[in-house]
Design goal:
about 80 residues, mainly alpha
């Protein structure tokens, strides 16, 4: 579970870095519109969100495995 949470933390950091890059590619944080940098930031955001989704799936699978184990234990206790 710790590894999945670490992967989520990395994904959040990557997403923040991509948001910073996108801001620097706009007139708000940079010299002007930079389409190449915006495209690079967008592709990085997709990757960061994919990492976040993979970690969420892993956490869900772990919880499901724990729940199934509890169900099996309760079924073993039945007469």
């Amino acid at each position: 579970m710790i590894a999945w949470r670490a992967l989520q933390a990395v994904a959040v950091l990557a997403l923040l870095a991509c948001l910073d890059l996108a801001l620097k590619a706009s007139p708000l944080g940079g010299e002007g519109w930079n389409p190449g940098r915006l495209l690079y930031a967008g592709s990085g955001m997709v990757t960061a969100l994919t990492l976040f989704a993979l970690a969420a799936i892993g956490i869900g699978q772990r919880r499901l495995a724990d729940r199934l184990a509890r169900i099996e234990q309760s079924l073993d206790r039945l007469p």
